[in-house]
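Moderator note: this is an archived Q&A kept for reference. The question asked for a predicted structure of one protein chain; the sequence and the answer are reproduced below.
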Amino acid sequence: MKQRVITAAVLLALLAVVVWQIYTPLFVIVFAFLSAVAANEIMKCAKVKNKFIVIFGTIVAAFIPFTSSESIMRPWFSEEVWGNFISILPPGALITVVVIVFFVAMIFDYKETKFEDVAVSVVASVLVPYGFAMFGALRDYYDYRSPVGVYLIFYGLICALGTDTGAQLGGMALGKHKLCPNISPKKTVEGAVCGVITGVFLNVIALLLYNRFASSTLDRSFVITLMVCAPFVGVFSMLGDLTASVLKRNFDVKDFGKIFPGHGGVMDRFDSSLFTVPLTFVIVSVFDAFFRMR
């Protein structure tokens, strides 16, 4: 327990530094590091033996968050310079190149490398990193230094962390009916309901604080959309957690890694957020597209 508390304190301190430096390249550097570690954790748990795939996949995973926004490297590089750089290889082309390289690596080491290794490595080094890239995409969605972007990041995180905490406490206090006993025996239906309610409640508080202290308030229709979607995002948070549990059962491991003593690996801490933050980006994009069409 002591180890978990110490690790949690260190993580909170790291979060404070990231928030403090949220408009500097340190923000994306941290997420690039987390992305690389997460990709490496998954490939290690899947026992991918091809060293080239593991190394190349880890490098790609570290690079992808840097492509999240043209403004992500300010003030080191301007939007024009960085935008021209990341446009050299658009996301579709980047994914294609990575898949081809993995398959070529499989051909050269066909005795040890199976198709399953390539499939897992694509998920680890491409899909998961694009989930981390959504933190940067949300930050700069409206404009560099827009407080709305920061609020949206916290919206996604609250849907994940608030739901997880509420589900754990609610399950301990009220839990009777198992939610998914074959996947995660400790999760209960009552805990899940408490988790969704907690996530919505905390998001209401966050919204009130934002409108109270931010330089500009959020549009009413935008607020309604976010609050209506909050319960559904909370449900997807639990789906992210359950997905990670299924993967760990398939890999026959307790935790993805040990980088956070007492808490496991990066994937153990960000499994829910990698569902909620990208989903938040989708909600905002659909909202903007709908109101532009009107």
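Archived answer notes: DSSP finds eleven helices and two strands in the chain.
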